[in-house]
Amino acid sequence: QVIVHDVNELTEKLFPIVEAMQKHFSAGSGTYYSDSIFFLSVAMHRIMPKEITQIIQVDLDLKYKTNIRDLFDEFDNFPEGAVIGIAREMQPVYRHTFWQYRRENPQTQVGEPPPDGLPGFNSGVLLLNLEAMRQSKLYNQLLEPTMVQKLTEKYHFKGHLGDQDFFTMVGMEHPELFHVLDCTWNRQLCTWWRDHGYSDVFDQYFQCEGEVKIYHGNCNTPIPED
């Protein structure tokens, strides 16, 4: 069954919920009404009908190497308290974004590569447990403008990647809200940061063992042919 949603209608519902966070996680210099759609996943539980309990949200620049139904099985692996399934970011983008916090906290794992570090998240493949999102008091508190402001000040955070930035920042503070997907479910291919100051550490973020299930051709990177 395919249901088509009107982008303008969704944006109208989203804007009041995400307006406050847009100035922290948008590329523009202000809060653009149209930018709200880049925060759809953050508040999906507020605007989708109650009978919809789980959603997989994906970017368009993906290539599937396995049946997407297999990804739904990951919902069964969510630990208690987790509301979103998401893979780690595979470039040192958040090593860069959190530079000031990292300088002030030299022992932090924030921005460090896996397996022990916190490299942040990539929102190209998202599992949204809408029912868990609706019931999580903690998650809904984190959507409040005062909480967003508090965290952005703590981490000196200014991003431009929409929902991905929000999930990354929240994940630094409350990792228990997230079920981390294996990198093979979102094998990102972009290497932009390797050529922009991080060649010495890039491979620590970029490596991904195992058979790829979904390729993600982010930053217009060509996806391997079969």
Automatic annotation (TrEMBL):
GO MF annotations, alphabetized: xylosyl alpha-1,3-xylosyltransferase activity
Entry keyword set: Transferase
Keyword Metal-binding annotated: no
Cellular component, GO, one term: endoplasmic reticulum membrane
Keyword Transferase: yes
SUPFAM superfamilies: Nucleotide-diphospho-sugar transferases
GO biological process, one term: protein O-linked glycosylation via N-acetyl-galactosamine
Alphabetical list of InterPro entries matching this protein: Glyco_trans_8, Nucleotide-diphossugar_trans, XXLT1
PANTHER family (alphabetical): XYLOSIDE XYLOSYLTRANSFERASE 1 (PTHR46612)
The name this protein goes by in its record: XXLT1 xylosyltransferase
